[in-house]
């Protein structure tokens, strides 16, 4: 499973890219708004910092306007993936933008049927939102499992499953086990994947024992 980082924080992206743990970046209007900076500048900087795809989302809700915004976002850099919502106009825009050779990420997906429409519309990525379904007391990961099963059954389903709205390390593990192609993960959750108290405890006791020997490796 590939990892994207779900943030518009350029310092975090640079650090995680240098560590070699991320294959791409996803942003959304809320994440861009948090930076307080113009979207073009933020997306350009992110695209310069990482080779992989960088999702930038349209804010229009009507088809014609989505196309204009999608083209504008895609003109920022070659690795921009245009994000459109899982709405009727979004699926139409996905089809039109994909036919123009752009990568489209269909976002705000909450059902397998929306994923089917996205794949039919030529989406490069479908983003089922796990955490937001969990917030309602539902099993968000079930949608990822359903989309995986559909994709496995259907050779014409050429859309990568991008597990989104990932909130915990458990979500990351479950997404991988459900067969997601990619998980987009907030920086804090990504760092938490490395943590285990037994690792810290074991390291402390190894170092204490080593200190008693007085040896140095180099
Ligand atoms: C995905 O592309 C979205 O930006 C993101 O995963 C949304 O996550 P949230 O539900 O935690 O806001």
Automatic annotation (TrEMBL):
PROSITE patterns: TRANSALDOLASE_1. It catalyses: D-sedoheptulose 7-phosphate + D-glyceraldehyde 3-phosphate = D-erythrose 4-phosphate + beta-D-fructose 6-phosphate. It is found in: Cytoplasm. GO terms for biological process: carbohydrate metabolic process; ketone catabolic process; pentose-phosphate shunt. It is an enzyme of class 2 (transferase). One of its GO terms (molecular function) is aldehyde-lyase activity. Pathway: Carbohydrate degradation; pentose phosphate pathway; D-glyceraldehyde 3-phosphate and beta-D-fructose 6-phosphate from D-ribose 5-phosphate and D-xylulose 5-phosphate (non-oxidative stage): step 2/3. GO terms for cellular component: cytoplasm. The active site is at 83 (schiff-base intermediate with substrate). It comes from the Bacteria. SUPFAM superfamilies: Aldolase (SSF51569). Coiled coil: none annotated. Its EC number is 2.2.1.2. Keywords: Cytoplasm, Pentose shunt, Plasmid, Schiff base, Transferase. Transaldolase is important for the balance of metabolites in the pentose-phosphate pathway. Belongs to the transaldolase family. Type 3B subfamily. This is Probable transaldolase. The gene is tal.
């Amino acid at each position: 499973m590939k990892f994207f980082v779900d943030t518009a924080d350029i310092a975090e992206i640079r650090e995680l890219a240098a560590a070699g743990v991320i294959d791409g970046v996803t942003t959304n209007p809320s994440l861009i708004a948090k930076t307080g900076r113009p979207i073009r500048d933020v997306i350009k900087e992110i695209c310069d910092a990482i080779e992989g795809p960088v999702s930038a989302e349209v804010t229009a809700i009507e088809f014609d306007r989505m196309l204009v915004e999608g083209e504008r976002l895609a003109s920022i850099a070659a690795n921009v993936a245009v994000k459109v919502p899982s709405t009727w106009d979004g699926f139409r825009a996905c089809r039109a933008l994909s036919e123009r050779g752009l990568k489209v990420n269909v976002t705000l997906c909450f059902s397998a049927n929306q994923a089917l429409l996205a794949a039919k519309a030529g989406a490069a990525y479908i983003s089922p939102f796990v955490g937001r379904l969990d917030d309602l007391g539902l099993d968000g990961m079930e949608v990822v499992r359903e989309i995986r099963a559909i994709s496995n059954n259907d050779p014409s389903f050429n859309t990568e499953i991008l597990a989104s709205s990932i909130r915990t390390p458990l979500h990351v593990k479950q997404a991988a086990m459900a067969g997601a192609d990619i998980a987009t993960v907030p920086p804090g959750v990504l760092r938490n994947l490395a943590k285990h108290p037994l690792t810290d405890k074991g390291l402390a006791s190894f170092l204490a024992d080593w200190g008693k020997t007085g040896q140095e490796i180099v």
